[in-house]
Amino acid sequence: GPAPESAKEAQDWLAENAPFGLYINGKMTAPGDTFASKNPANGEELAQITQATADEVDAAVTAARKAQGKWAGLPGHKRAQYLYALARLMQKHSRLFSVLETLDNGKPIRESRDVDIPLVARHFYYHAGMAQLQDAELPDREALGVCGQIIPWNFPLLMLAWKVAPAIAMGNTVVLKPAEYTSLTALLFAQICEEAGLPKGVVNIVTGDGRVGEAITSHEQIDKIAFTGSTEVGRLIRRATAGTGKSLTLELGGKSPYIVFDDADIDSAVEGLVDAIWFNQGQVCCAGSRLLVQEGIADRFYTKLKARMAKLRVGDPMDKCIDVGAIVDPVQLQTVTTLVEAGKHQGEVYHAPCELPANGCYYPPTLITGMSPAATLMQEEIFGPVLVATTFRTPSEAVEVANNTRYGLAATVWTENVNLALDIAPKLVAGVVWVNGTNMFDAAAGFGGVRESGFGREGGWEGLMAYTKPKGDAKAL
Ligand code: NAD
């Protein structure tokens, strides 16, 4: 059932702190022009959030610039102490973080509590270790400088961690913009920076919509832009930064294949899909959103899958028994609805039978079978709880259909035949391939895409190096 006592803690925090200003140079500014952040589960307003002005973005960049030399000049083991402190404080406040994330985003409280927030803390612990390592192992690398970081709404705090932890570990300072739908956990993070005694200016948080993102991307005093979001905005940012000497990493959309061979452990492959496409309501860049099943088992597989879908519990994300919560915002819900309406004739539609709560942004778990690989719903990222499916005959046909996409973020393969898995994995055009499992993440493992899914890696060694440059390297124009 619901967890009213923890909801009260979050309501008290909001009452005490809203309306929110920006976190610049170690201080919260007075709120400016504000907009409402709403709870997608019931449409209620949670807080007023400031739309930062270009001058405020400039003040944040100036603060970050001023703090950077001294921050980078600290020995790695000293910087590490701050990251350890941040990690510990995030664990200490994990309940408040989890509830705020769920209220703001609509994701099930079980996911915020058991997946997002623990991963966030792990990310800071891992990069604290990396900061320590820097003294001995990376004497010839140095920080890039000031990093502008722009993140989406699907994993608000986790995307913050993926960006902030490696950046500050390596001696950079940051100006981060959360997505306009989901600013709350970033604002709580600002308080955690205070509590950890992080030197002022090392982390700055500016809220607002794409205009704030544009002010960041076009700012001359920023050395690197790290962006996660849509392919469309990624393209704009690539254009805006071209020829400026800024480093750039882009984590964009996906339409990842989930391939099931006829010798697979079918029950596990069905259960894996609960994670692959219904976790976070399918609003996951690497969601296994395209199901490819080998012909001989297709009927049996679909029958089992529909039975499993019928058991998914859809509803109030604050209820700790819920599997599928609310879509982040009415606009996003409309996008999903429109895409499915326009393409539903392309296959056979199955909506999981469930009673959707009134007033919230809910969409039923959906499966559309019998798709042609070229159909729009097989090609377009839906970014919702909608799985589209087709069948294949041979392994080479599976590879061909899997790679028939403009994206290349992730892929999943299910087979009991290790030789087949080893043969298929390298042929799939994807930044990561999971075998007999899905959505596996670790701070030590690089993550990122190819083709229109972007470029560069986050996490792991590659992700860490992307926040450094060789010592003495001139800014290349
Ligand atoms: P988006 O790309 O519009 O927004 C992502 C971030 O970029 C937000 O913080 C936004 O304010 C900012 N932004 C918007 N316009 C900008 C601009 N011109 N310059 C700089 N920053 C700008 O994505 P969204 O609206 O949050 O979601 C739309 C689609 O993006 C989704 O349907 C999905 O396809 C994709 N998406 C992908 C991921 C991912 O992890 N790869 C995550 C979220 C969304």
Q: What is the terminal separation in angstroms? A: 57 Å
- The radius of gyration over CA amounts to 22 Å
What percent of residues are in strands? 15-25%
Low-confidence spans:
none
Q: Helical amount among residues, as a percent range?
A: 40-55%
| Small molecules bound | nicotinamide-adenine-dinucleotide
Q: What would the average pLDDT be, to the nearest integer?
A: 96
Specify the overall morphology.
globular
Counting DSSP H or I runs of 4 or more residues, the number of helices is 16
How is the secondary structure organized here?
Layout: H1 4-17, E1 23-24, E2 27-28, E3 34-38, E4 45-50, H2 54-73, H3 76-92, H4 94-105, H5 109-137, E5 141-143, E6 146-150, H6 156-169, E7 173-177, H7 184-195, E8 203-205, H8 210-217, E9 224-228, H9 231-241, E10 247-251, E11 257-260, H10 266-277, E12 290-294, H11 298-311, H12 330-343, E13 348-351, E14 366-369, H13 376-379, E15 386-392, H14 395-402, E16 410-414, H15 418-424, E17 432-435, E18 454-455, H16 460-465, E19 468-470
Parallel strand pairs: 6-7, 6-9, 7-8, 9-10, 11-12, 11-16, 12-15, 14-15, 16-17
Antiparallel strand pairs: 1-2, 3-4, 5-19, 10-18, 13-14
Helix pairs in contact: 1-4, 3-5, 4-5, 5-6, 10-11
The structure holds nicotinamide-adenine-dinucleotide.
Characterization of this structure:
This protein is α/β, with parallel strands linked by helices and about 475 residues long. It is about 40% helix and about 15% strand. It is built from 16 helices and 19 strands. The protein has helices spanning about 5-15, 55-75, 75-90, 95-105, 110-135, 155-170, 185-195, 210-215, 230-240, 265-275, 300-310, 330-345, 375-380, 395-400, 420-425, 460-465; strands at about 25, 25-30, 35-40, 45-50, 140-145, 145-150, 175, 205, 225-230, 245-250, 255-260, 290-295, 350, 365-370, 385-390, 410-415, 430-435, 455, 470. The strands form 5 sheets. The chain has a 7-stranded mixed sheet. It has a 6-stranded mixed sheet with strand order 8-7-6-9-10-18, sandwiched between helices. A two-stranded antiparallel sheet has the order 1-2. α15 links the parallel β16 and β17 (about 430-435). α4 crosses α5 and α5 packs parallel to α6. The mean pLDDT is about 95. Bound molecules: nicotinamide-adenine-dinucleotide (NAD). The site of nicotinamide-adenine-dinucleotide has 25 residues, from α8 and α9. Nicotinamide-adenine-dinucleotide binds near residues 153, 253, 381 and 383. Belongs to the aldehyde dehydrogenase family. Keywords: Oxidoreductase. This is Aldehyde dehydrogenase family protein.
